[in-house]
Amino acid sequence: MDFDSALERFKGISQEKGLRLTHQRLEILRELVAAKDHPSAETVFGRVRKRLPTISLDTVYRTLSTFDEVGLIMRVPVTGDQGRFDADTSPHHHFVCSRCKSIYDFLWDEFDSLELPENSRALGRVDDRRVVVRGVCEKCAADGITN
Questions:
Q1: Does the pTM of the predicted model rise above 0.70?
Q2: Residue in 54, 2, 41 with CA at minimum distance from that of residue 22
Q3: In DSSP terms, which residues pair with 40 in a beta bridge?
Q4: Which end of the chain, N or C, is more open, meaning fewer C-beta atoms within 10 Å of its C-beta?
Q5: Distance between CA 66 and CA 22 in Å, rounded?
Q6: d(CA 6, CA 72)
Q7: CA distance 94 to 79
């Protein structure tokens, strides 16, 4: 997704949810759209702070939380790590390297087309199906780091 598309989406969500389009929010969104590394709040803060020296870490945390709540971004569930964020909300899955903590997007058409098991209906309504696969990435494996 490019920034212009994300901005149009943000404008629509802002009108619908009554959110203000602040300069800080726009810069945080710009950073997330440009990032391909699924940055943490601290990473976003460090990058945005270069352009907006007065921004606070609290503002970044609150903005990321708001963006996640309204569906503008998604939080990538990474156990034992800082929260990581993805501006790409299209259907896709994540591979997390257990060594370097890198996160990679991947598609899995076969999984996406599977019917949910009958017993899952007893749990409630399913709104989203995303998989997080954990392992050792190719770079770590090439460097001899295998566990």
A1: yes
A2: 54
A3: 84
A4: C
A5: 13
A6: 8
A7: 13
If we measure between CA atoms, which residue out of 97, 95, 115 comes closest to residue 105? 95
Owner of token pair 């309504």: 125
CA distance 87 to 69: 13
pLDDT of the residue at 81: 63
Q: What is the mean pLDDT of residues 130-143?
A: 93
Residue 105: CB partners within 8 Å, gap ≥ 6?
86, 88, 92, 93, 94, 95
Roughly how many angstroms between the first and final C-alpha of the chain, as a whole number?
34
Angle at 68 (CA atoms; ends 24, 55), nearest 5 degrees: 20
SS3 103: strand
Q: How many residues does the chain have?
A: 147
Tell me the three state secondary structure of residue 8: helix
pLDDT tens sequence across 57-106: 999 999 999 999 999 999 998 867 678 999 999 999 999 999 999 999 99
Rounded to whole angstroms, the maximal C-alpha distance in the chain is 53
